[in-house]
Amino acid sequence: MGNSSKNGAKQEMQEAREKQKKEERYKVKLICMRCGFEKTEMYDPNADEEKICPKCSSNSIRIKKV
Amino acid sequence: MADVGRHPRIELMAMSEVVDVEGYIGNFKVRIKRRARYVREKECTACGECAKVCPETAPDEFNIGLSTRKAIYQPFPQAVPSAYLINIDECRGMIACSKCYEVCEKKCIDFADKDRTVEIEVGTIIVATGMEPFDATKVEEYGYGKYENVITSMEFERLISSGGPTGGHLVRISDRRVPKTVAFIQCIGSRSKRGETKSYCSNICCMNTIKDAFLIHSHYPDIEMKVFYMDIRAFGKGFEELYDRTRKFGVRYIRSMPGYIEEDSRTKDLLIYAEDDDGSVKVHRAEMVVLSVGLVPRKGNDEVKRLLSLSYTKDGFFMEAHPKLQPVDAATKGVFFAGCAESPKDVKDSVTQASAAASRAMRLMATGRVKVGAVKPVVDLELCKRCGRCAKVCPFGAVKWEKGNPPAVIEALCAGCGGCAAECPFSALDIRHFTDEQILSQIEAALIERPEDKVVVFACNWCSYGGADTCGVSRFQYPPSARLIRTMCSARVSPNFVYYAFSLGAPVVLVSGCHFADCHYINANRNTVKRVQAMWDRLEKWGIRPQRLQLEWISAAEGERFARVMEAMENIRRTVTKEEMEFGKGAVKEYVEKYLKEVRKGDKVSVAEE
Ligand code: SF4
Ligand code: SF4
Ligand SMILES: [Zn+2]
Fold first, then answer.
1. What CATH number is attached to the domain comprising A43?
2. What is the pTM of this model?
3. The domain containing residue A57 runs over which residues?
4. Which residue in B89, B515, B551 is closest to A60 by CB distance?
């Protein structure tokens, strides 16, 4: 309604933000503080998710940058 | 809607966007951007003469592009306010055209109209931002967007509506003829974990299809109908009866999710490949396919979330303060939800929730005052170094801080999680009724005798403490080593409490709280995670085995999980040697002594903002 160009700009900003977020991902080692299970993966600090050990289902997951 | 438009005490702001919200319950200041309409809303009688002469056409959004509209138009016939508007991006402009201007007898076209921002003061806010239909192009195998006669349930809705582009005649897009066979495919975008689909049930689609089948049958009794489904969820009042009636008049319900659809290029009919009861793949021919699309959160919700300090459930809809006891309240006081903003729901549930939200808001405004809890931060102005870290972590934006000043707390906004106090690196903040002194005393009491046999457990009021209760009530057994200390939120657990417990010889400390989606303080427990991560690093630096500090999310319903976690804690406790405990005591000694000296001096005073 008269603002599609602004919406376009907004969308571009959003996309740029998302791209930046993607670039913020880095490699980490996840270590279970209960059973010792270890896994290396790309970590997204902005992902709002509960960490859980696939072996013992503990939430004590230490995140170490590698 | 028309009643709302006419109501003397309701101001309807169409074409408006909330750009900023400040303040708190009873005292919100809301800035609203009102987009230019280019037609004087109050004077326009919606006679439509302007649209007749307008030379510019565009796809009609209301009819999902199935018809066209002009650059000057009314979004839909029942729109309130009943006035036209110009999409200025499509308009040729005053100089090049101005046909609408010339034809409008009431002279309500105003090309000089501009966007403007207004500010209003309100006591309460109801978020009713709705939902969006799932984008069916994301499920490529059904050919939506590729095959003309594959449409979505939203498009079907417009096709069958008497006010729609075909005047209510159900026709196929390819040849504008009434189809002889219509197939519905359920759960498009719902109850699946593939690609961009959603794992939740969208709640309305089964009944919507049943209603659509009913409509088709009443208009065109000869059309043959098939519904492909996983389960039919017809649990509302009168719903099962409606489902039965459609079966009786011949709708075939086939329990199978088709693998893919192909188009017969000659007839434009659709060939649906679906598994039969015996496992063989059967091809069903249909002249039209309706994809029953699910509901997804609105794209613009992030901005609303930010402005009002709200949180999402893992589905991406807004999270209520409590699923059973406060189902229409947001965690931010004075903010309520109505309709699909909170979760997918049908009209009846939306109306029920909207009525509840309106009465919750009215009750507050009629009272004119709110009672706030006493669990609020207090500050030692001498210890405070004016760093502002407390303000950064408050999920409610209740701590106001300006460079060089101590924090000020808006008590009506503060929910009392205690996260600010745990964040303060100088122990300058404390929380009434959950003060450092009170918690330290509880730690001392827990470890006064045979500390080596104990596990210190910090449990949050709402979830993990509730989990312990459920565990007890359900008579689940767990080792007697646990000593529970209740805090309102796991975010209240200051690293100082953990180190203090180690200084008194605790072998294991557990910090526990609500699962992410259940945090009663929006997202305060994300700060708990950050603090525990930092504590693991620090413990390691001090030479203390980081495993002696554990973190667990336990909901109030997870009594059994609580018992299992306590068993795991007991197993870890058994691995901690006397030497380790003694070493730990020494390693944290200097830090703890310094902290105790700081925290025990001076006075903490209220810094409530008036
Ligand atoms: S109370 Fe603590 S965290 Fe807040 S400004 Fe003062 S020193 Fe910083
Ligand atoms: S107690 Fe929680 S809600 Fe209150 S000011 Fe501190 S961080 Fe904000
Ligand atoms: Zn594990």
1. 2.20.28
2. 0.83
3. 25-66
4. B551
